[in-house]
Write a structure and sequence with these properties.
The chain folds into two domains: about 260 residues, Aldehyde Dehydrogenase, Chain A, domain 1 (3-Layer(aba) Sandwich); about 180 residues, Aldehyde Dehydrogenase, Chain A, domain 2, CATH 3.40.309. By secondary structure, it is α/β, with parallel strands linked by helices. Helix content is about 35%, strand content about 20%. It contains 16 helices and 25 strands. Helix 9 links the parallel strand 11 and strand 12. Helix 3 packs antiparallel against helix 5 and helix 3 packs antiparallel against helix 6. The strands form seven sheets. It has a seven-stranded mixed beta sheet with strand order 15-18-19-14-13-21-22, sandwiched between helices. It has a six-stranded mixed beta sheet with strand order 10-9-8-11-12-24, with helices on both faces. It has a three-stranded mixed beta sheet with strand order 1-5-4, with no helix packed on it.
C-alpha cells in the first residue's frame, strides 16, 4: 500500500478532498499513488472560477504570461529526475522514453513562452473601395475565454503540455481532465503552476469519474473543447459539445512507404523505432509498411533481426526498449488481434507473445486488410509488412484507411516526394523518417477519423484566440 498521495487543483489551489483514485505501477501492477478525485460539485466550481478569471487572464500582460511559462521550464529542469520517475511508474515508460518525454515537456513550454509575446494582428488597407477611403483598419487576436482540455494516458506530460502551454500563452483560463490511468504527471504540472502569480481561477486540474466529467464537454460557458484520445470517444464528445469549437487529435494506423532507392539499413532502424517505441502506444506509431518488391526480402530479413533483438522488461533498465502496455487487458487485446490475423493466413515473423502486460514486438506479413491489426489502430507493438510494385498504387493503399494522421516515406526521388505530398490524405508527410516524428512547434493533426484542427503551439494559440476588428473613420 502506497502512502504517496496527490491533490487535485481547483482554482489554482491544491485540494486533498479524498484518496479515491488509485494509480498502479504499470510494470509491477502494485498500487503506486493515491489521487484526489473531483466530483460534479468540484467541476462546477472550477468552471465558475474559470469564467470569473476570463477578464483577469485576458488582461495579463504578455511578459507575465511568458514569465509563468519560463518558471515552469526552470522547475521542470530542476525536478527532471522526479518527473522521469513518475512517468516510469504511472505510464510504464522505459527510462529512455521517459527522459525523452520530459525533454519535450520542457521544449513545449519554452516554445510557448516565446509565442506568448508574439500574438499580434495586422493593419488592413481600407482604401480598396471608395466607401472606405477615410477609414483605418486593423485587427488583433484576443483570448477566446475559458477552455476545456481532455488528455489521454499515453503522453501524460507532453499531450497535457500541448494544451496547457498554449492556453497560458494565449491568456485563456482552463479546466483540464487528465486520464485516470496517468493523472499524476498533470498534477505535478499543476503543483508548479500553483507557485505562479496567476489570477484566481486561471487553472483547475481535475481527475474525475466518468459521471462527473460531462460538463467538460457540454457546459456552454467553456468556449473551446480540445480533446486528445480515441476516435470513438472523440466524435461522441463533438456531438455533445454544443456551439463551442472543437479541436480533436484522435487515432491513426500510420503507414510508411520504402521505395527501391531507399537506404535499407536506415529504414530498418527507423521502422523498428517508429513501430515499437512506447510499446506502440502512440497514435503515430508505424503500423503499416509498404516496401518495394525489389528490396522487400532484404528489408524483411534485416527488420526481423532488428526487432528480435529489442529487449523487453523492466522500464528502469536503460537497455530495455519494450515496456508494458497500459493494462493487462490491452496486452490481451493485442495478442488476440495478432491471433485473428494469423488465423486468416498471416505469418507472424517475430514476436507477438504476451508476458503479463508486455507483448513482444511483432512483425506480420500476408495480413488480410480486413483484420483489426491492419484496419484499426492497434495501439500496441505490431507492424504489418506488404510489398508493392507500383508507386501510385502504394499511395492509394496508404490512403485506403479511415485514418489520416501522418505518413512516412523512405526514398530519394524529389518528384515522388511532391507527388506523395499532394496525394496522401494525411495531416503530415515525413520523408526519410517515420510518421512518429514530431517537433513541438509543427502544425500537428489529422484528417478523416484522425481528428479536426491542428496542434503545435502557434496553431493551438490560433484556436484559443479570435480575431477582433477595429475600423476607425477619420473625421478631419
Amino acid at each position: 500500500m502506497s502512502d504517496k498521495t496527490y491533490p487535485y487543483y481547483l482554482a489554482n489551489e491544491a485540494v486533498y478532498a479524498n484518496t479515491d483514485l488509485e494509480v498502479e505501477d504499470k510494470h509491477s501492477g502494485e498500487l503506486a499513488y493515491r489521487v484526489a478525485q473531483a466530483d460534479e460539485e468540484a467541476v462546477e466550481k472550477a468552471i465558475a472560477a474559470a469564467v470569473a478569471a476570463r477578464r483577469p487572464m485576458a488582461e495579463l500582460p504578455a511578459h507575465r504570461r511568458r514569465d509563468v511559462l519560463r518558471h515552469c521550464v526552470e522547475q521542470f529542469k530542476r525536478r527532471e529526475d522526479e518527473l522521469v520517475e513518475v512517468l516510469i511508474v504511472e505510464g510504464g515508460k522505459v527510462i529512455t522514453d521517459a527522459r525523452g518525454e520530459v525533454g519535450r515537456l520542457i521544449e513545449t513550454f519554452e516554445i510557448a513562452a516565446e509565442e506568448a509575446t508574439r500574438i499580434g494582428g495586422e493593419v488592413l488597407p481600407m482604401d480598396i473601395t471608395p466607401r472606405a477611403e477615410n477609414f483605418w483598419g486593423m485587427y488583433k487576436r484576443v483570448p477566446i475565454g475559458p477552455v476545456s482540455l481532455i488528455t489521454p494516458f499515453n503522453f501524460p506530460y507532453n499531450l497535457v503540455a500541448h494544451k496547457v502551454a498554449p492556453a497560458l500563452a494565449a491568456g485563456c483560463p482552463f479546466v483540464l481532465k487528465p486520464a485516470s490511468k496517468t493523472p499524476v504527471g498533470a498534477l505535478l504540472i499543476g503543483e508548479i503552476l500553483a507557485e505562479c502569480d496567476l489570477p484566481a481561477g486561471a487553472f483547475s486540474i481535475l481527475p474525475t469519474e466518468r459521471g462527473a466529467s460531462a460538463a467538460f464537454t457540454e457546459d456552454e460557458r467553456l468556449k473551446l473543447l480540445s480533446f486528445t484520445g480515441s476516435d470513438e470517444v472523440g466524435w461522441k464528445l463533438k456531438a455533445r459539445a454544443g456551439t463551442k469549437p472543437v479541436v480533436m487529435e484522435l487515432g491513426g494506423n500510420a503507414a510508411c512507404l520504402v521505395d527501391a532507392d531507399a537506404d535499407v539499413d536506415h529504414a530498418v532502424d527507423r521502422l523498428a523505432f517508429g513501430a515499437f517505441y512506447q510499446a506502440g502506444q502512440s497514435c503515430i506509431s508505424v503500423q503499416r509498411v509498404q516496401v518495394h518488391e525489389s528490396i522487400y526480402a532484404t528489408l524483411r530479413e534485416k527488420l526481423v533481426d532488428k526487432v528480435g533483438s529489442l529487449k523487453d522488461g523492466d522500464p528502469r533498465d536503460p537497455d530495455t526498449f519494450i515496456g508494458p502496455l497500459i493494462s493487462a487487458g490491452d496486452a490481451e487485446r493485442v495478442v488476440e488481434w495478432i491471433g485473428e490475423a494469423v488465423d486468416k493466413g498471416a505469418r507472424c515473423l517475430v514476436g507477438g507473445e504476451r508476458r503479463g502486460r508486455i507483448v513482444t514486438p511483432a512483425v506480420l506479413e500476408n495480413v488480410d486488410r480486413d483484420c483489426r491489426v491492419y484496419d484499426n489502430e492497434v495501439f500496441g507493438p505490431v507492424l504489418v509488412l506488404e510489398s508493392f510494385a507500383d508507386f501510385d498504387e502504394a499511395l492509394e493503399i496508404i490512403n485506403d484507411s479511415r485514418y489520416g494522421l501522418q505518413a512516412g516515406l523512405f526514398l530519394r526521388d524529389i518528384d515522388k516526394v511532391h507527388e506523395a505530398w499532394n496525394r496522401l490524405d494525411v495531416g503530415g508527410v515525413v520523408v526519410n523518417d517515420v510518421p512518429a516524428f514530431r517537433v513541438d512547434h509543427m502544425p500537428y493533426g489529422g484528417v478523416k477519423d484522425s481528428g479536426l484542427g491542428r496542434e503545435g503551439i502557434r496553431f493551438a494559440i490560433e484556436d484559443m484566440t479570435e480575431i477582433r476588428m477595429l475600423a476607425i473613420r477619420r473625421t478631419d
